[in-house]
Amino acid sequence: MPLLTAVVPSYNSADYMERCVDSLLVGGADVEILIVNDGSRDATGAIADMYEARYPGRVRAIHKPNGGHGSTINVGLAEARGRYFKVVDSDDWVDADALVELLATLGRLEAEDGVDMVVSNFVYEKEGRARTSAVRYRRVLPQGRVFGWDQVGRMRKTQYLLMHSLVYRTQLLRDMGLELPEHTFYVDNIVAYMPLPYVQRLYYLDVDLYRYYIGREGQSVAEQVMISRLDQQLRVNTMMMEHVAREVSPGHPAYRYMTHYLEIVCAVSSTLLLRSGTRDALLTKEALWRGIREEDELLHRRLRRGALGQIMHLPGRGGRRVTLAAYRAAQWRVGFN
User: Fold this and answer.
1) What is the 3-state secondary structure (H, E, C) of 289-305?
2) Which helix (H) or strand (E) segment is 334 a member of?
3) Which end of the chain is less crowded, N or C, counting CB atoms within 10 A of the terminal residue's CB?
């Protein structure tokens, strides 16, 4: 049984996927690499088959009809043989030294009592930007020991546990019944969110493992692409809101962080609606927040009273200009699209 399964969702990825797979091969036999070809129309499938033939037992090529990012992760989770599970998108990659350290840490933890989730840092690799920007958790997560949610500090608005920073125990995801919607973008937020109430034993490894590439033409996180797919962003936003409102009590130790993350996602949705600039978009923004209030008054109050929640609701055109200016400043500082 491999220590770690790395699922590589791949759709028309022929031009860049080899960098991703090659970075994972550094892990040797401890890493099972599942390249899930999501009905690609280019050479993605052939490249996946080439890797499987070249590295039998370490790389598996899985071919399926197109179903979107979530469907590839569903298939990867069903096929995974590793004790731990990580998703590495085909246009991203991992740092070799950090991967070796992660595997050594997983092996040591597994030899003891194991953990439910390992957190590591991720780095924005933005096209055309000389300096990278890393998201790290040094002042909010304990280091060198297993800990619980009650020992997690208060994260800044620039800190959040994206899918890129997480390794889960595979069986935990299966036991909780994680299943992502098909033909829907931005499900990485669900992967980084819905398992959290089931996580009890956490470990923080302070290495810059995941390199998150930003800037590929047509990338799903490009702003204009996100605006064109706002219905899917809002669908994921609503799923996250309903999950914490219906499944997680305010007394749960993960609740504080989950409302923090949800506030960020609601701010992204609201800002994109403002950026689209239409009257229908403004009405949709109002409907989003009204839906939160109708679902859970306490949750709505927490989100509205947060710093981002207040910025999202500045009144009038002047308020909207301030909101968008704050968004641009965050873009420049952090490096996201």
Assistant:
1) HHHHHHHCHHHHHHHHH
2) helix 316-334
3) N
DSSP assigned state of 306: S
CB atoms inside a 10 Å sphere around CB 67 = 19
- 3-state class of 260 per DSSP? helix
Residues 6+ apart with CB under 8 A from 286: none
- Using the 8-state DSSP alphabet, how is residue 140 labeled? T
Residue with tokens 């071919």: 63
pLDDT band at 19 (very low <50, low <70, confident <90, very high): very high
Q: Is the CB of residue 189 less than 8 Å from the CB of residue 73?
A: no
Residue type at 30 in one-letter notation: D
Question: Do 242 and 112 fall into the same domain?
Answer: no
* DSSP three-state, residue 199: coil
Query: Mind listing the pLDDT tens digit for each residue in 321-331?
Result: 877 776 776 66
- Among 305, 332, 330, 337, which Cα is nearest to 158's? 330
In this structure, the strands spanning 84-87 and 93-94 are unpaired
Residue 253, judged by CB atoms within 10 A of its CB (0-12, 13-18, 19+), counts as: middle
Residue 64's identity, in one-letter code, is K
Same domain, 282 and 191: no
Counted domains in the chain: 2
